[in-house]
Amino acid sequence: MIRYKNISFALRLNILALLLFTITFTTTGCFNIGPNAMKREWLKYNNVISNIEDQQNLLNLVKLRYNDSPKMLAVTNINSQLLLGTEDSGASYSFSERATPVGNRFNFSLFPKYEDKPTITYQPLQGEKFVKSMLEQISLDVLLLLNNSGWSVERIFRLCVQDINGIRNAPGASGPTPDYAPEYKDFLTVAKLMRTLQKRNLSNVEYELVNGKSTLVFSLAKEALELSETYKLVEMLRLTPGKTEYPIRMNDVDHNPNLIRLRTRSVMGILYLLSQSVEVPQEDVRRGKLTTTKYEDGLPFNWGDLFSDLFQIKSSSEKPSDAFVSIKYRGHWFYIDDTDVESKRTYALFSQIFAIQAGKIEIERPTLTLPIGG
What we know:
Shape: globular
Helix content: 25-40%
Number of helices: 11
Number of strands: 12
Largest sheet: 6 strands, mixed
Structural class: alpha+beta
Distance between the termini: 29 Å
Number of domains: 2
Strand content: 25-35%
């Protein structure tokens, strides 16, 4: 509190002028608080929502590996209210009859402040439409979209395709962990050969008119026909050699040497597939908390062989220090290493596929709305 006793009239005028200047400066400065606060809060919300979605996806992958039921929540609305005001830090004045005016001391300050009071709305992803979108096969249109977006055809096929011309890509892994070892090695070879041709810009996937009908086609450049990679690819797929175009069809049963037959996974199938990559603590294996996959001779199958250079979820008894995303579940930490570039790329591809499929439907009720703030 300012006490005016023994203060000269001139000094009072100086104090008043200082007060007016401080208030004017503070009030004028408030005009910049809103935009600056918006910049800060926007980035905070963006980062937090992104991190929560990553943790939720990781948690669901770990749950599927343990044969537990996954659950999904989506942030559907954020209503943020910004309240502006000022905070008085107080004022003080020291006076001495013997002191010169320069020796007198006066302190006064006002600080602008703002409060962010958001209301965040969560909705569970559920209902008939959502379940159907998760269980229906990924369409050829989605494969084309991903291919044209610059994704590796090898990564797309390893993730989304479970059978090409009868060559199997661990179809049993599209559901709960199987107890038998999957077939996948020939498929990996096919996917890598297709990637080799793609990197050399000698192959493409595109729509063309075939017999007057728009058809998705796997096409080869003429110069590709002389390559050993093309010979091997055509041989493995049991295709007619020397052709530059092979129409692609979904779910055909009978083999046709002039066509490529694909059977794709669903989003749920991809989730189950990726869940097989979870590095399970040996303690949980010994206690029989999850399914153990074995060869016919009874030896355990190593899922890491299937996911080489594709995806890996590690586990640890301690919280990881350098994780892209981590979650604690059943007393252990599960995480994707921040230096594991291939896993991060595969996760980004899955996130795009999930967004495409989930975007086809409207989110169902019930809703849970939580007001946050003091």
